[in-house]
Amino acid sequence: MPASTYLSFVRRLKPDTAPISYREQARSAIGALIGIFVTGMIGIWPLGGESASLPFLIAPMGASSVLLFAVPASPLAQPWSLLAGNLCAALVGVTVARFVGDPVIGAALAAGLSIALMISFGCLHPPSGAVALTAVLGGKAVHDLGYFFVLWPVAANSLALLATALVYNRLVGRRYPHRHTTMAAAEINGIGFERSDLDAVLRDYDAILDIDADDLEYILRRTELRALTRRTRHLQCAGLMTPAPPALSPDASLTEVLRALRASQLHVLPVTDDTARILGVVTQGDFLGKVSWAKGRPVIGLGRRMALALDGAPAPNGTARDIMTTTVRCVSAQTALSEAIALFAQTGLHHLPVVNDNNKLVGMLAQSDVLAGLLDAAQAHGKP
User: Fold this and answer.
1) Could you tell me the domains of the chain?
2) Tens of pLDDT along 333-344?
3) The overall pTM is greater than 0.70
4) DSSP secondary structure letters along 79-94
């Protein structure tokens, strides 16, 4: 076999894993060292002089330490997986050992039944398969323990290793137990696929993945945003915005606001002071939800008056100030298009005021402007 063919075959055997920093490698190795040491000391302490004949630390804990300290984000490494998985496997293994005399058949039954039970209870933990085999093949010392083996050393080892992992991972800055990634994925939640799309693909894939679905969604969305940033890095809000949009004075009457909204194609109007600094925005939703009608003209109704009073606002006088939204998300003219897209997705807004360095209004960016920019970028990359 030529050397190049041999090397190619060897490379195919190696998994294509993500690069890990030396710092992360050290944290994983040191964590496992500490975890096994603490678990062993806790296991051997109550046994005293009997430690040579009774198991105080079972081998599957070494495999569990790989998960808890090297890949603590894995669903297989979570506390429920560790504790429930090991206990299920120990119970199955002890039961099979009591009723099946042949060690080979017993080992096979213990492993298979343990996996089925763990999957059904949502506590799949690979080292638990070795726990089941230990109960069957561990020899006289293990068999003499009977069901006490489930409590000691299995439950005791599992609890000690878990306690160490909880403390160590927190101390080194890791999230453990691993929480769902609420993200920053909210920051790009409206981009590309929906979560229901991902769930459907995972159902069709029909295989156990060693990654949390929320983490997978986070990675995919961040990848989409990164690709989008790469394709649109030359685009800024200044080149896509509607320049010098019509603006309202905060003292404009509700009738003037209505007339301006009808005339505007943006469906949202910025409210600025005399120096063009933005004070808020009035949307069609603001007008419909906060304005009442009396004798055919818009007025501030009782509900809105009470809301303003509770907020400590001055008495309303039927102007734009009384109905405008004052919490306004803005972008600068130099903001990258990808950042504006993320902001649209995060806030659910359809328009963003564009301001200069002095917070003065210079334009308005609409989602339709962003779409046009994306189409231009796609055509520039040769995509229809």
Assistant:
1) 18-171 (no CATH), 186-231 (no CATH), 238-380 (3.10.580.10)
2) 888 887 887 787
3) no
4) HHHHHHHHHHHHHHHH
